[in-house]
């Protein structure tokens, strides 16, 4: 997907983001299963302000017990793009008459994968002694009593 610079004005505009990166590993075993995202953009002088917002869903495993689960994450990630300049140390630049959106969408997705994914805040996790899932099997290995 591309934004064409001649079409970008000082008035905010939006466009839906096509389903891309489906099935891709976003890191830590988290696989993208779907998204509903919108690109919002406008020009401020020579600077382009781009916001990727919406939500995505992904398959993951619980960081405590290892059970598979599906997570839904809301996101709103803003990028400020400057014209490319020789020798300038800028994070986001553009050159030419178009801006490819895919790298920005991918970065927004990866940046918003939760650092810790759990099936439930009360998840008991795995017993470090016997390896049993303490959500399913009472375990007395450490405390001598059921959790």
General description of the model:
The structure is a single chain. The chain is mainly beta and 147 residues long. The chain has one domain. The protein is 7% helix and 39% strand. It is built from 1 helix and 7 strands. A 5-stranded mixed β-sheet has the order 2-3-4-5-6. A two-stranded antiparallel sheet has the order 1-7. The protein is elongated. The chain starts with a strand and ends in a 36-residue tail after the last helix. The model has no long low-confidence stretch (mean pLDDT 92).
Index terms:
147 residues, mainly beta, two-stranded antiparallel ribbon, 5-stranded mixed beta sheet
Structural class: mainly beta
Q: How many strands?
A: 7
Shape: elongated
Q: What are the secondary-structure elements, in order, as H or E?
A: EEEEEEEH
Biggest sheet, strands in spatial order? 2-3-4-5-6
The fraction of residues assigned to DSSP E strands is: 35-45%
Q: How many helical elements? A: 1
The number of domains: 1
Outline of this structure?
The protein has 147 residues and is mostly beta strands.
Set out the fold topology.
Layout: E1 2-4, E2 13-16, E3 31-44, E4 47-61, E5 68-83, E6 93-94, E7 98-100, H1 102-111
């Amino acid at each position: 997907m591309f934004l064409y610079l001649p079409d970008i004005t000082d008035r905010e505009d939006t466009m839906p983001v096509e389903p891309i990166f489906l099935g891709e590993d976003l890191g830590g075993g988290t696989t993208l299963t779907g998204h509903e995202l919108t690109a919002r953009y406008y020009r401020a002088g020579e600077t382009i302000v781009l916001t990727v917002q919406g939500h995505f869903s992904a398959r993951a495993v619980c960081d405590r017990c290892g059970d598979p689960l599906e997570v839904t994450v809301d996101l709103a990630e803003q990028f400020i793009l400057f014209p490319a300049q020789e020798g300038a140390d800028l994070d986001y630049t553009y050159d030419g008459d178009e801006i490819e959106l895919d790298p920005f969408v991918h970065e927004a997705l990866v940046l918003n994968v939760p650092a810790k994914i759990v099936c439930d805040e009360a998840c008991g996790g795995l017993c470090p002694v016997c390896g049993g899932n303490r959500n399913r099997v009472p375990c007395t290995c450490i405390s001598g009593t059921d959790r």
